[in-house]
Structure formats: structure tokens, C-alpha cells
Amino acid sequence: MSHLEKERKTTSFDVQKLSELFYTLGGKSQLKEFLEFQKVIAEDPILKYDPSEIGIGRKETMTRMARKTARLHELFGMCSFGYVDYHHILPGQVVGTVHNVMFVPTIKYLGTDKQIEKYLDDAHSLKIFGCYAQTELGHGSDVQSLETTATYDPATEEFTIHSPTISSTKWWPGELGVFATHCVTHAQLIVMGVNYGVQTFIVQIRDVETHQPLKGITVGDIGPKLGYTTKDNGFLRFDNVKIPRENMLMRYAKISKSGEFSKAANEKIAYATMLMVRMGLLEEAYKFLSSAGTIALRYSAFRKQFRDEEGQERVILDYQLQLNKLVPILANTYAMNATYKKLYNGYHDMMKRINEKQDFSTMNEFHSILAGCKSFWTWDALNGIEVCRQACGGHGYSSYSGIPLLFDGYGPAVTFEGDNTVMALQTARYLLKVAQHVASGQKVQGVLGYLKTATSQRCSAKNKDEVSTLEAIEKALQASSAQLIWKVSQKFQTLIGEGHSMKQVWDKKAGIDLFEASRAFINCFTFSGFAQMIREDIKDEKVAAVMSKLCALYGIEKILQHPLGVVESEYFLPVHFVYLKAKKEDLLEELRNDAIGLTDAFAFRDESLCSALAVSDGKVYETLYDWAVNKNDVNQGNRSEGYFKYIKPVMGKYSHVKPKL
After folding, report:
1. For residues 594 and 603, what is the distance between their CA atoms, to the nearest angstrom?
2. Which of the residue ranges 7-11, 271-275, 361-365, 528-532 has the most confident prediction, judged by mean pLDDT?
3. Which residues are catalytic?
């Protein structure tokens, strides 16, 4: 019996039922599709994971990823569900993710019916290959300050796209460096000397037959990076490139033949694609974290270190400190998964309203919530991956653990498609507006319905069980969120009253408070989404029981990590923190025997984890040894070339030479 089989005997719930819950989105189960997708990847000679590919050069790896991409397109179609949704089990960055989640949706949501008809079929069939060229060398999150210009000439009915400065060079777009033939790009629209702000355009950048850059286009790859090793993030400069009027995406913002510009009903519609991409990053957050958690927990159930009082070596998962590292990773994963379902439904409801009725009423709140979730979820996911790596000790540092591959694949998420600090401040701006509405006597419902009363309440719990019910934890998180929102709101009022401008306060006086308010709000929002799913969507009592424990652990962990709000509001007395810590220790112990079952619900095949540490048959050390000896290019061929060429000639020499300073 393997170590994992022994662990599974202690599971308290039906793993299959939890798997169905985890992979149900929008009322549809994706579990069967995910299992089938994994099977194809594991058995296909081109797509299956091969540890011997680790360590080869970037250029060769990019070529191999192009081959894998072609195979994926052959099997599934470039824009299929599996290509986008299951990126976390495909080591390396396959070609086409930006094409799928940014280029195509931008045309779909911002293009006219005629533009959709012209481009979308070709994009789906890969007759054209697109990227999303927004970020510039000098500007990223500050979209309104982009420098690329699109000057319209009514006489020719053309735009001239131009990069006027070195800092206006498009920089970072994936798929741009090597593969893209077209781009969706963003530029300042100028008509007869008047700047109408940033608008969206389609520009062909390479010939579809020769793949050579077109006239006026300078394009290439920006070079190696900390993560996303095989993604061709690129640079792009326009030298007075002419495009027809019809290449401006004009579903909402339009320009007539004569040069008359009409604005969108809501200018934020231009960010519709960005919202979709951020949704994808949130989905990847819990999926990448589920991979890392599975590897670390499987290894922890295998690895033995030090002996117990009976002289038997103890598996490291039995140590409280190991549980303290890894069980909260599970709580985070399931919390984000549960709340993502709520966001998913909200996003599709919002887009339906916009597309069918041009109803933008829910967009501001949704955009603000999504910005905060993007910020704090991606941080939680990336930090969690690093915790998992460290929890595996020295072997976690090996690429054969599979965890460095996860870091490589998810590392950029905290920066691209919206710097996390900027995203947190966008959420804070919304929180301030709602606080002003409440202060003026307006009734506020929904996600901030607690804002008016939460700070006046006090915790009445008399023991660790009373303080740790889901209702009690939610009230504590609401009190924390409300306290920090009101504190920063009052700070603005005070400082503006003293003569500071709103801009001065925002940029130089209140940044830390704004950030803390945003974090407290997102922690509360995420916990509430998890608790709501448990109340409304889980019918099985045993699944509900283990999810309730994880939900409680998630909330307790957030309070203990960031207690400022409940302390300043005096919602908690010091003894309540004693109760919470004691309850956390209980939960870690109670969840110990369910840990492997909770990872089994993620439904990973061994092959999908790309890890020698997570093999189910218990042959962890045998697999590590095999990969090091037989799958490691350094151990193949002539291993001694550097030794004989450089080291041996200096051995025994120069010992008398003093170092030169």
C-alpha cells in the first residue's frame, strides 16, 4: 500500500462529490472535460511532459513550444476550453494564450458586427495570429498617458500610427516578439489637432506569408525574463504606419469619415477585454495554487524526518509547523475557487447587460472588486507557491519538483495586466465613494451593506467555538473592513480641510491606509463568497463539514495576519485573539487526515503535476534519481569538456600568486 493510499483511508468525505463542486462553473461541470484533457496530454508523444527538456536553451524551448502549440491546435482548436482553462498543467508557455484571451475577445467585444465578420473567423482558424499591444516602455498601468499616436486624415480616411519617442515603444506584449501577424493596439486618437484620448485599433505588423515585418514596423523579442521563459514578449515601434479608418474598433467609440468623434456610453467599456483577462488570472490563481499544494502535501505525506518517541521516523505532514504552512494553502485555494464562481456569474451578467441593453450599471462595482481580487489573489497564489517550495525542503528547489515550473508560469501575474498596487488603489477609490454615499445618508446594499453598522458592533464570543463560527468570523472581517474604510475616509476629510489637495492626499499622505482598506475589503469579500457557496450550493453534509472548516481557517488566518482593523475598531478584545489562535490549531489538527483527500479533489494525474515529488506509487527517490541520471542533459555526452579545457590546466599552479586588489 502506497503512502497516498494510506492517507486516503482517513478521508472523511466523498472526494468525487468535492471534485464535481470544485470544477462546476456557471452551472456546468468541467470535471469530465478536465480529466479527458489530461489524458490526451499525458499520452500524446508531443505534448506529454518530458523532464529532459528542462535546462535546454530558450530559443530551442520556444521552438518546441511552437510544436506543442501546433499539436494542441490540431487536437482541440486554438480557442478551445482546454487550451485556455488548463494552462496550469502545460509546462512552459504555449503559443496563443494572448491571442485567445486578449486579441480575439477585444475584437468580439469592441468591434462592430462588420469588423467581427472580417476578423473573427480568420483569428479562430489562425489565418491571422494576434497579440494585445497596449503597454509601452514608459507607461503600463497609466493607460491614459500612452504616447503612441493615431492621427486621422479625413482626406484619405486613414490613421497614421506612430511611435514618437523611445518611451512610446510597445513593450511586453506576449506573442508579439516572434509569432503575431496582427495586433490590437492602443493609441492617442488625434483629429485635426484635437486629442480624443486612447482608442483601440487593429494593425497588421507582419506579412501572413513571409512573416516579415511590414513597412514602418520594427518588432522583436525583449529578451530573457525571471518567469515566462518561453513566452515571446516583444517590442514594437510604428514609423508612420497607415491603416484604414475601418481598423479602429468602433462598437462604442466611433469616428466618421469626415473626422467627427463620438464617445462611448461608458468609457470603461474599452477595458472589457482587460476585465476578462483579469478573470482568467483569478482562475489561474487557484488552479496554479492547487498544483503547488498537491505537490507539497503529497511529498509531505511521503517524506520522513526525525524519530518519534517510539523510535519511528515521522512523516513531515504530522508536524504542526508543516500543517501550518500547507493547510492554509488549501483554504486559500478553495476560498478563491468558491468566490470565483460568484465573480464568473457576475461578469457574464454584466457583459450580457452591456451587449444587449448597453446597461453599464454594474460595471463600476464589478471593475473595482475585480481589481482588488486581481491584486490580493495573485499575491496569495504566488506567495503560496513559494511556501510550497520551501515546505519541500531542498528537493523543492529542484526543477524536478515541478514547483519552479509553476513559479515560472505564474510569477508575472502579480505585475502584468495591472500592477497589483495600482489595482488595490482602484478598489480603494470605489470604497471611498461608497463611504461618502453612506456618510451622506444614502442607503447602500450589496457587498458593502455592512459599512454603516459594522464598526459599532462588538464581539460577544465567550470561547474559541463561539468566536470561530462562519457568522462570527464574517462579522469580524466586516468590522475590520469597515473600520479601515472609515479611517481612510476621515483622513481625506481632515487633510483636505487642512488645505491639502485631493491629489496630494492620495499620492503622498494616504497610500498605506488606502491599501490596507482595500486588502481588508477583499479578504472579507472572498470569505463571504466561500461561506455563501457552502450555505447555498453544497448539499452533502460531509463535504459541507470539511469546507466549513477550511472556510473558518481562511477567515481566522486573514484576521491573525492582518489584525489592524479589528483592533482599532475594538471589535475584538485581546482574549478573542487567544481564542482564534487556539481554534486555528484545532482546525489544523482536524484537517490533517483530510489533507490528501482535499488535494485528490483537484483531480490531477501524476503526469499533470510534472513532479518527481508527487508520484502516487511512492517511488519519489527512484524518480528523482532516474530523472537526474537519465533525463539530465548535463550527464549526457562529454561531461568533462570544461574540466579538461579550463580547470585541469590550472590545477596545482599559481598557489603562490597573491590576489590582485
Report:
1. 15
2. 528-532
3. 417
Average pLDDT estimate for 376-389: 97
CA distances from 348 to 128, 139, 216, 283, 354 (A): 27, 30, 39, 15, 10
Sign of the alpha-carbon torsion through 622, 596, 525, 562: negative
Buried residues in 500-535 as b, exposed as e (16+ CB within 10 A): beeeebbeebbbebbbbbbbbbbbbbbbbbbbbbbe
Which pLDDT tens digit goes with each residue over 68-81?
988 988 888 766 65
As a whole number of angstroms, the distance between CA 474 and CA 330 comes to 19
The string of pLDDT tens digits covering residues 421-430 is 999 999 999 9
Looking up cell 462553473 gives 25
Higher pLDDT, 257 or 142: 257
Q: How many CB atoms lie within 10 A of CB 287?
A: 23
CA-CA distance, 478 to 349, in Å (whole number)? Answer: 26
- What average pLDDT does range 583-602 have in this prediction? 97
Could you give the 3-state DSSP secondary structure of residue 626?
helix
Residue in the structure block whose three cell numbers are 497589483: 420
Q: Residue 430 has what pLDDT? A: 96
Cell of 427: 478598489
Averaged pLDDT for residues 457-484: 96
**For residues 604 and 294, what is the distance between their CA atoms, to the nearest angstrom?**
8
Dihedral sign, Cα of residue 225, residue 226, residue 231, residue 236: negative
Cα–Cα distance, 254 to 260 (Å, whole number): 8
DSSP string, 17-70: HHHHHHTEETTEE-HHHHHHHHHHHHH-TTTS--GGGTT--HHHHHHHHHHHHH
Helix (H, G, I), strand (E, B) or coil at 316: helix
Residues 6+ apart with CB under 8 A from 190: 149, 150, 151, 152, 196
Tell me the DSSP string of 382-425: HHHHHHHHHHTHHHHTSGGGSHHHHHHHHGGGGTTTS-HHHHHH
Residue appearing with cell numbers 483629429: 191
Distance CA(358)–CA(167), nearest Å, equals: 36
pTM of the model: 0.92
Contacts of 155 (CB under 8 A, 6+ apart): none
First to last CA, the chain: 62
Of 175, 172, 160, whose CA–CA distance to 123 is shortest? 175
Pairing of strands 313-315, 304-307: antiparallel
Task: Write a three-state SS string for 173-241.
Answer: CCCCCCCCCEEEEEEEEEECCEEEEEEEEEEECECCCCCCECCCEEEEECCCCCCCCCCCCEEEEECCE
Nearest to 98 by CA among 76, 83, 113: 83
CB atoms within 10 A of CB 67: 13
